UniProtKB/TrEMBL annotation:
Protein name in UniProt: PadR family transcriptional regulator
Lineage: Bacteria, Bacillati, Actinomycetota, Actinomycetes, Streptosporangiales
InterPro entries: Tscrpt_reg_PadR_N, WH-like_DNA-bd_sf, WH_DNA-bd_sf
Residues in Transcription regulator PadR N-terminal domain copies: 7-80
Source organism, top-level taxon: Bacteria
Pfam families: PadR
Coiled-coil portions: none
Length: 202
């Protein structure tokens, strides 16, 4: 997935300023697609240059102005083209599993701390995603409501169901990561209880 398609997909809900898009990608959506501020604004300019979005310059106060971006027909066609293409799987670079594979070079304290942090991170993520699923069920997500307002009622079920499918994937992933960290902590307790030495303890 490219930054461009993430922005185009978001703009199908409603026109937004660059600032509003930054806030959206800083929020709960960051778990799915992280986008630094330094990437969003340049990509919006490129999308404007390539004719994928329309831009309305709106006065803000006496001297300032803001640029409001909206997806156009060319942008929608590009998003649909991307959706039809298979997504290639990329080679994994997982520092958490890499580090765990070599915990014998650490201390029990350091290894335990790493897994506890992993557990805490995904416990927070799990709470966020379960709340998002509840909000989707209740249609409390403002961007979802705006999207539904623009689409015929017969499309609403699919729109909500596909968003729940995506976030359900995040819930399952978080639960798996929590289970993995708990298994690792139990293993550390077992090995330490047996007096198995680690090189990092020397």
């Amino acid at each position: 997935m490219s930054q461009r398609h993430a922005l185009l997909a978001t703009l199908t809900a409603q026109p937004m300023t660059g600032y509003e898009l930054v806030k959206y990608f800083d929020g709960s959506f960051a778990y799915v697609w992280s986008a630094p501020h330094s990437q969003i604004y340049p990509e919006l300019r490129r999308m404007e240059r390539d004719g994928l979005v329309g831009v309305e310059v709106v006065p803000r106060g006496e001297r300032a102005e803001k640029r409001v971006y909206s997806i156009n027909e060319a942008g929608l066609a590009e998003l649909q083209r991307w959706e039809r293409e298979p997504t290639p799987y990329q080679s994994e670079r997982d520092p958490y599993r890499l580090k765990a594979a070599h915990f014998e070079q650490a201390t029990y304290e350091a290894a335990r701390h790493q897994l506890q942090e992993h557990l805490r991170h995904f416990a927070r993520a799990l709470r966020d995603w379960e709340q998002m699923l509840a909000d989707l069920d209740a249609r409390r997500v403002s961007l979802l409501r705006r999207r539904l307002e623009q689409r015929p009622e017969e499309e609403h079920e699919a729109i909500v169901a596909f968003r729940k499918l995506a976030f359900r994937g995040e819930v399952l992933k978080a639960r798996a990561e929590i289970a993995w960290a708990e298994e690792g902590l139990a293993l550390l307790d077992e090995l330490e209880g047996k007096g198995v030495p680690l090189r990092g303890e020397r």
